[in-house]
Predict the 3D structure of the following.
Amino acid sequence: MEEKNTANENTAHYLSKARALIEARQQKAGRRLRAFTRHFGCQQNVADGERIDGMLAEMGYDFCDSPDGADLIIFNTCAVRENAEDRIFGNAGALKHQKARNPGLIIGLCGCMVQQKHIAAKLRKSYPHVDLLFGPSALPKLPELLCRKLEEKGRVFEILDPTAEIAEDLPVRRESGIKVLVSIMYGCDNFCSYCVVPYVRGRERSRGHAKILDDVRGLVGSGFKEIMLLGQNVNSYRDGGKDFVGLLRDICGIHGDFRLRFMTSHPKDCSRELIDTIAECGQIVKHLHLPVQSGSDRILEKMNRGYTARQYLDIIAYAKEKIPGVSFTGDVIVGFPGETYEDVQKTIALIREVGYQSLFTFIYSKRAGTAAEKLDDPVSDEQKGIWFRELLDVQNEISKAHYEKLVGSILTVLAEGKGKNGEGWLTGRTGSNIIVDFEAPESLTGSFVQVEITAALNWALKGNLIKI
Ligand code: SAH
Ligand code: SF4
């Protein structure tokens, strides 16, 4: 699915310049040029990736599924944990030989990892085969940077102030014609002590309320069935007098057959009014992704999260009371500096009380430049691993029970296409984002259907289509 929009002036100028340069290269090569891109990390990076791909398509690139045979390779990186970065170093290192075989190959790294000074310095020094380095805020400059490279002006580095102006209307290339990501705000002001995001994505800035509404209206009009509003902290969205609740209510006023989800919500900004809005608006899914990080007040304070475990549980209790059938997912970090086994037990107790549908669990990863970097971290990695597995076992048990409880119920599923079960089967997702496989004709792809759940599998459900 490709959409063409009017890019801002600078981007538009370089898009057409790059198109001409690429066309000349294509003529010389006697074939179309191919790009291979991979977008790691969070949904925001996926949304950025859709813009990268959109600009590349606009410049004339075809896309290929493997780096072999590509003329341009771009890795859009994540910096949230060290293992994400190690993966990129590994992937980028592996391209050295390919570049040696094909000196015309252009290799680019972008995204949050590149925005960090020490990483950019390491890439510049020890990865000389990488041609392009640019941070998330330089994304609209991709056509310009590529022009510089195509004109043989050497390696190109563009790491800007992370709090850049929001670039609207860049070209987009999406995988799905059914579900769509809509960024509503960028950056983060929360400075949780473990987190690198505020440093690499800059200060919070919200997109214009009217512009978002216009975009959503257009997307619903062109047939998208699921709108996912995105931001590091969506519930601190603000444009003039409009806050997140106002935005949600206005989007729900748009006429059309669609459902609305959003992430990520921060518990400290999760008001009763927001929960009432979820309860009242039919289009909003009855599911909240609400990362808690820890169930211990001592650790929450050290994390600078701005709430206590009790305050978090009060929100959950209010949501359970107001929204029938509501389900929750969240994020938890194990092994934060100074955490003890007693703290982990408090997190486990909280997990049991909430009864999460599923949980994203992470072992703490020290990030350069964050406040937690300087804290004493006496617990060994082995010990953290043992705590982590204990917590995961509890959550797996809770998830299993949650899925099994759904057997026998009738759920609304958005059919997304053919599943892994082969001919005659479709796969889709419930409002709370659980995968459901069911027998149905392919023509139902892209519609909301009612499915009676017959079995709970590992991380998915199976059911029968209810014929209306
Ligand atoms: N803005 C979102 C997402 C942030 S990153 C939010 O606040 O929820 C996604 C998750 O990664 C976080 O919720 C946290 O659980 C995890 N995370 C962030 N920094 C981390 C670190 N240094 N070590 C381990 N996990 C981390
Ligand atoms: Fe990171 Fe906290 Fe901001 Fe989420 S809210 S992006 S965890 S600083």
